[in-house]
Amino acid sequence: MLQIKKEGIILEKRALGFEKEGVLNPAVIADGEDIHIFYRAVGKDNYSTIGYCKLNLLQEVKTRLDVPLLFPQFDYEKQGVEDPRIVKIEDLYYLTYTANDGLNAMGALATSKDLVTWEKRGLIVPEYSYEEFQHLAETRGELNEKYFRFNAKYILPKNLEKKHYYGTKISFFFQEK
Predict the structure, then answer these.
(1) What is the pLDDT of residue 125?
(2) Which of 4, 31, 41, 51 has the smallest C-beta neighbourhood within 10 Å, fewest atoms?
């Protein structure tokens, strides 16, 4: 049987602007004697960035950045980057995260060889409107009525300046092939 031990709160929000409203939903990866935590840092107006800290094996903070590790740089993430997930495959770290443009929340990817320098790779989920997804899904038969019950509110007028996409904001990679 699996035994779980509650360790309590490891990180709390600080008065720093980028995480003043909260820290939550971390990605965690161990590397030798270090535990690396990439967390959603929430600032004013629910604006999210990804913060970073390193713990020792006793879960004591060794390093914690006073600035975000990852922050919005592109239109598809202009309202925030959030909810990181991390895995190492061979010699490369893959950090998936949610890119929020204010209307759409879509899965995105950044990679690193050293957990310090990150290269953003862009969105990794298809950008289908709800109507396009419905059309694709119906090629295999009629859609379940639950689709309409849960997604009708997202099918927006076509005259909007920006498209609302049917996508997933949760994305991750498996560590093994």
Answers:
(1) 84
(2) 4
